[in-house]
Model the fold of this input.
Amino acid sequence: MRLGAPRVHRRALASTSDEARKLAAAGAPHGTLVTADEQHAGRGRQGRTWSAPAGRALLMSLVLRDPPRFVPLAAGVAVADTVGPQAQLKWPNDVWIEGRKVAGILVEGRLQEGWVVLGIGVNVAVDVADLPPELAGSATTLGRPPEDLEPFLAALLAALEHRLTQPDGALLDAWRERDALRGRTVAWADGRGAAAGIDDDGRLVVATDEGDVALAAGEVHLHLGPVVP
Done:
């Protein structure tokens, strides 16, 4: 699986994923990569925005044709592999360091046409002081120099090639090893309980007073509480 070629790079874009979607719809091959120094309308799940100073974050989107089943989970593990042993995964699509978000993942596409776009943002060289005030308490950075952006991208593409082709069982086990939510109290519109890992379908399992509940990523907006004793 060759990822990263052809590559389109722009100084500024509204969104790398919007650009990649246009290319995919026009027939761009598997592995096509879109990157930008800056994006003005980057987004995450549930309408959230992704904000980063120009030239300080890895902003990328990949066209994946005939995508495997667990693209978001595979991407999370690949980012964590590249970040290092301190990285943890917050289901369904965030990478954390010490409880703060360092990377986000968004998968969009047209499965009926056999493709998705995998968008990834990583705060590689961001100064947290430059982020909007509302992110000061929840975001973090790798604290690397800007010249590390390209080497980080190369390492991430290699990790993605490995994780996206890995057997499901091995991938899910790798994800579970970095699970940041296990034992944490989570709440959503319909309930509350203790996160108990992910099942073999990649859903978050929550132990509640009424029994275990399996949540799909599109169903919930989680509110986190402390670790359950």
Q: What stands out?
A: The chain has two domains: 7-177, 184-227.
